[in-house]
């Protein structure tokens, strides 16, 4: 079944549209949305529903329709379930349906009926198939109902919750209705019924409209009631929400004080009290209104608990001025309902969409759209709104229409703009950038005219307008803060690719900030709160990522600006924030503030800075500089540092500190760079000779293990006559004779020590010792010392030094030495004799063993097997070894093949081929002796290659002890196979 809501008549109902009567309201090209301008605000479609009788009343709530026909038939339509239900309870009754009241959730229905003599009230729900009388009420006619909008009540359809009823006598009644109170034998749907207030004061005063609401989640409630001339408002807290009647707690406060009301123009009898809720939030109505004889009473809800008021101001939208001109011949509307920005007025032949916001120029119409009807559907009766879904329904005697509201804010934003209601205009234009730009531009201009320059600057900065034009507006002001705010805000809107604009604005802002700071400094306000706040603001500005990028690329320009204003401290801060330590250190050096320069290097280590400033700093503070350099450890390259520490004429204090760093680099950083060691040696030679020998000894005597250049060091030591060091360096260079010559100049002991060093070269050692001996004999002419010298050196004999003695020396001087030498020779001869005898005996033993082996034999059992193939040994030619290992000849060759070289393998194969050929050709008996002789020789040669030693016990297997089972090249392949 097709939903009644969607069963529209084919085509749109013919409407009669009048031409626009207010061209001045809106420039047709203002927002550039031509398509929207062509679509009317009001567009209706006829519902495909044709009742049998004329419609007298219709209400819609939460897609639930209740309508009354002129024949007293009630119909209920559930649009969600596409069901129509007819209630004919009153069809045969003398009572006539006067008013229908449907709650906003579509759950509860009240029907006010009556005749000339009495009035009755009936109650029904969605689930209740028949009407139930509300007790035996036959009092004054119920003219208005204030439903309960509490969502908790909506969750159950069995009760209305506390509601208020207003009657034609001016009495306000509180009651609660529901099917759960219809107990057996009682037949009543009323829980309680209580008259809580009377506004008639003895004169029957019909209550035309009645509403009550709770404010949010608070205990505050407010009640509105309208009569023909007054608007009553009641505001107070309900302390006990479970008390019944609940709302009497509010009215009780007005029993002793006059009720608060407004005198209003005469309210038409058919008017209703209409509320508009934003986003279906029934706790916060936006505004309310009703029809009077002169115009629409309209007010925004603004609860004031202290003053006990519901609204602070109101407007009267006069019927006579709807079209912007005075019209005395106006018609009062039949009905009204609210949209977000309009009130829809129903006339006998048309519907008007009237703007709730009056234009600034009263000559401009408030009618934003008109929709005309033909008389084919009977008389227009009412326009109503479904508060839950927001749909608007209009019904005539024989037709029902549904209205669609399209882009109703298209004109309202311009009205707000013309009236200077910028915030309201911006709320409408959020999704329309063009309109929003127009609103902000107008707002910025207005703020500038009213001298609110700072607010104006912030708005101008967010607009896409001429930068130069706006800047010129603010440059003419004496105050510089607005232009600064404008530039800061404008900078935030720029993208990284707008590099030129960013650079220009950044430099300009830096100039403005520094100028302000300079003015305060000139006025001696460096310690004032204003100066500190401004400085902090400047710092925060410079720390922005987009600004930092610009600062990095424009260092020089920014420093020039800061320097031009003499703001040295800020310049240092900026350099530190941007890690421009080079500039900071250079500044402190220029100021001779060595302590601060060292502090920067210590707290902000950066290797290039040390390489750059080490030479300057170490001259002025050598101890502190070297300590900081040492602290850096491996972060610095010693070679680069030392390049900065080379001074042609340094002081002793400076040189000693350089030595300290060089020693640290060598001993702690393991620096082996030759130039570093050479530099240390050069400084040792001049400033600390005592450490030179320790260093040279530590480096060792092997030229391959030293880190310095020995030739360079030797040349320096010779220049400075350091003979002992020269001896050590000569030893390193392998100049042993020169080393001994130099050592003799120092002392005999040093020469002896030097000569005893080359232990592995006996000839060299002997030569060096002879040099010392010659020196002792020739230079000192001391025979006794020469004799002692012979005792110390085992390489030199008496006969070696005899040529050095003078001719007049007699044998008596070295008789003991000669005797000792002869005794040594005799002992050597005796030892040689003993060795010869031992060798002869050993040879004889070997000969006897060889002879015994010639006659030796081994017994081969039939069960013996080959040590390689494990088959019987005697089946093939074989070899047997004294170690008890036995091999077939073929098996032995196969086992040895992987471990012998290719040439030996080829020889073995060749010998085997020769033997095979000899056995095959051995058929001639006359040649058998020669063949056997040749064959024996070949076989002997083969035996020497194969049977020289056992394969398992000989040298071949021993040499394989370190060979891995799997070669490196095959390891990966085998591992993958196993996986």
From TrEMBL:
GO biological process: endosome organization; endosome to lysosome transport; intracellular protein transport; lysosome organization; organelle fusion; vesicle docking involved in exocytosis
GO CC annotation: HOPS complex; late endosome membrane; lysosome
This protein's record includes keyword Hydrolase: no
Each CHCR repeat, start to end: 629-785
The UniProt record lists the keyword RNA-binding: no
Coiled-coil region list: 815-849
Name of one Pfam family that matches: Pep3_Vps18
Keywords: Coiled coil, Lysosome, Membrane, Metal-binding, Zinc, Zinc-finger
Membrane topology note: Peripheral membrane protein
Domain Pep3/Vps18 RING C-terminal, first and last residues per copy: 861-958
Localization terms from the record: Late endosome membrane; Lysosome
GO MF term (any one): protein-macromolecule adaptor activity
Start and end residues of each Pep3/Vps18 beta-propeller domain: 40-405
Protein family per UniProt: Belongs to the VPS18 family.
Protein name: Vacuolar protein sorting-associated protein 18 homolog
Organism in which the protein naturally occurs: Sipha flava (yellow sugarcane aphid)
Source lineage: Eukaryota, Metazoa, Ecdysozoa, Arthropoda, Hexapoda
Gene, per the UniProt record: vps18
């Amino acid at each position: 079944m097709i939903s009644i809501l969607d069963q529209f008549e084919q085509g749109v109902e013919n409407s009669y549209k009048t031409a626009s009567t207010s061209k001045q309201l809106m420039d047709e090209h203002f927002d550039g949305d031509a398509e929207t301008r062509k679509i009317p605000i009001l567009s209706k479609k006829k519902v495909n529903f044709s009742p049998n009788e004329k419609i007298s009343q219709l209400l819609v709530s939460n897609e639930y329709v209740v309508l009354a026909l002129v024949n007293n038939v009630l119909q209920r339509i559930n649009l969600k379930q596409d069901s129509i239900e007819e209630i004919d309870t009153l069809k045969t009754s003398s009572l006539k349906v006067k008013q229908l009241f449907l709650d906003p959730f579509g759950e509860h229905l009240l029907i006010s009926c009556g005749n000339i003599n009495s009035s009755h009230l009936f109650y029904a729900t969605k689930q209740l198939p028949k009407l139930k009388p509300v007790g035996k009420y036959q009092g004054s006619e119920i003219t208005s109902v204030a439903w309960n909008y509490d969502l908790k009540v909506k969750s159950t359809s069995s009760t209305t919750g506390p509601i208020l009823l207003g009657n034609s006598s001016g009495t306000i009644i509180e009651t609660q209705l529901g099917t759960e109170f219809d107990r057996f034998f009682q037949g009543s749907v009323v829980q309680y019924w209580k008259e809580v207030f009377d506004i008639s004061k003895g004169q029957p005063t019909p209550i035309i409209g009645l509403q009550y609401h709770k404010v949010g989640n608070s205990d505050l409630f407010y009640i509105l009631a309208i009569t023909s001339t007054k608007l009553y408002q009641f505001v107070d807290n309900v302390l006990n929400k479970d008390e019944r009647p609940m709302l009497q707690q509010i009215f009780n406060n007005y029993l002793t004080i006059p009720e608060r009301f407004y005198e209003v123009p005469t309210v038409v009898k058919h008017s209703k009290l209409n509320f508009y809720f934003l986003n279906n939030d029934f706790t916060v109505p936006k505004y309310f209104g009703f029809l009077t004889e002169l115009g629409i009473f309209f007010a925004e809800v603004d609860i004031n608990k202290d003053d006990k008021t519901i609204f602070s101001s109101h407007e009267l939208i006069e019927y006579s001025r709807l079209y912007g001109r005075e019209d005395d011949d106006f018609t009062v509307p039949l009905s009204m309902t609210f949209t977000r920005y309009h009130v829809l007025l129903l006339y006998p032949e048309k519907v008007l969409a009237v703007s709730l916001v009056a234009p600034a120029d009263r000559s401009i119409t408030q009618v934003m759209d008109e929709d005309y009807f033909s008389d084919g559907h009977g008389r227009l009766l009412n326009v109503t709104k479904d508060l839950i879904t927001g749909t608007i329904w209009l019904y005539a005697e024989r037709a029902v229409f549904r209205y669609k509201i399209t882009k109703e804010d298209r004109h309202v934003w311009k009205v707000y703009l013309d009236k200077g209601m910028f915030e309201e205009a911006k709320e409408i234009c959020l999704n329309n950038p063009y309109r929003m730009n127009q609103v902000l531009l107008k707002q910025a201009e207005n703020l500038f005219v009213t001298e609110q320059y700072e607010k104006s600057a912030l708005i101008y900065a967010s607009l896409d307008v001429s930068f130069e034009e706006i800047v010129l507006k603010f440059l003419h002001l004496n105050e510089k803060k607005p232009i600064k705010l404008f530039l800061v805000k404008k900078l935030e809107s720029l993208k990284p690719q707008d590099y030129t604009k960013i650079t220009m604005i950044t430099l300009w802002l830096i100039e403005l900030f520094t100028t302000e700071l300079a003015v305060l400094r000139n006025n001696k306000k460096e310690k004032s709160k204003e100066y500190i706040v401004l400085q902090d603001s400047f710092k925060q500005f410079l720390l922005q990522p987009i600004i930092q990028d610009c600062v990095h690329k424009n260092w020089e320009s920014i420093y020039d600006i800061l320097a031009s204003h003499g703001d040295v401290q800020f310049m240092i801060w900026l350099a530190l924030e941007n890690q421009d330590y080079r500039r900071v250190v250079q500044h402190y050096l220029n100021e001779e503030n060595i302590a601060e320069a060292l502090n920067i290097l210590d707290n902000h280590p950066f290797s290039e800075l040390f390489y750059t400033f080490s030479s300057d700093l170490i001259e002025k503070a050598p101890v502190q500089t070297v300590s900081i350099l040492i602290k850096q450890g491996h972060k610095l390259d010693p070679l680069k540092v030392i390049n900065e520490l080379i001074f042609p004429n340094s002081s002793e204090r400076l040189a000693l500190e350089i030595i300290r760093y060089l020693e640290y680099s060598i001993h702690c950083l393991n620096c082996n760079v030759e130039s570093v060691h050479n530099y240390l040696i050069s400084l040792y030679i001049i400033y600390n000779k005592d450490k030179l020998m320790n260093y040279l000894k530590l480096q060792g005597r092997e030229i391959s293990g030293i880190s310095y250049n020995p030739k360079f060091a030797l040349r320096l030591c010779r220049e400075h006559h350091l003979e002992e060091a020269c001896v050590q360096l000569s030893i390193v260079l392998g100049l042993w004779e020169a080393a001994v010559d130099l050592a003799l100049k120092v002392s005999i002991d040093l020469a002896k020590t030097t000569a005893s060093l080359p232990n592995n070269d006996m000839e060299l050692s002997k030569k060096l010792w002879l040099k010392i001996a010659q020196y002792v004999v020739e230079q000192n002419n001391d025979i006794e010392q020469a004799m002692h010298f012979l005792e110390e050196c085992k390489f030199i004999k008496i006969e070696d030094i005899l040529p050095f003695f003078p001719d007049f020396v007699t044998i008596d001087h070295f008789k003991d030495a000669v005797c000792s030498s002869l005794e040594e020779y005799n002992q050597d001869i005796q030892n040689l004799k003993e060795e010869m005898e031992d060798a002869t005996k050993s040879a004889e033993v070997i000969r006897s063993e060889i002879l015994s082996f010639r006659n030796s034999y081994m017994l081969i059992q039939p069960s013996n097997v080959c040590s390689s193939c494990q088959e019987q040994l005697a089946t093939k030619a074989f070899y047997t070894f004294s170690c008890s290992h036995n091999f077939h000849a073929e098996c032995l060759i196969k086992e040895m093949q992987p471990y012998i070289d290719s040439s030996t393998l080829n020889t073995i194969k060749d010998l085997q081929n020769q033997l095979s050929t000899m056995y095959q050709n051995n058929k001639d008996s006359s040649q058998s002796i020669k063949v056997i002789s040749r064959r024996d020789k070949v076989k002997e040669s083969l035996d020497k290659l194969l049977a020289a030693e056992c394969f398992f016990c000989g040298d071949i297997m021993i040499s394989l002890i370190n060979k891995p089972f799997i070669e490196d090249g095959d390891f990966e392949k085998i591992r993958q196979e196993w996986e």
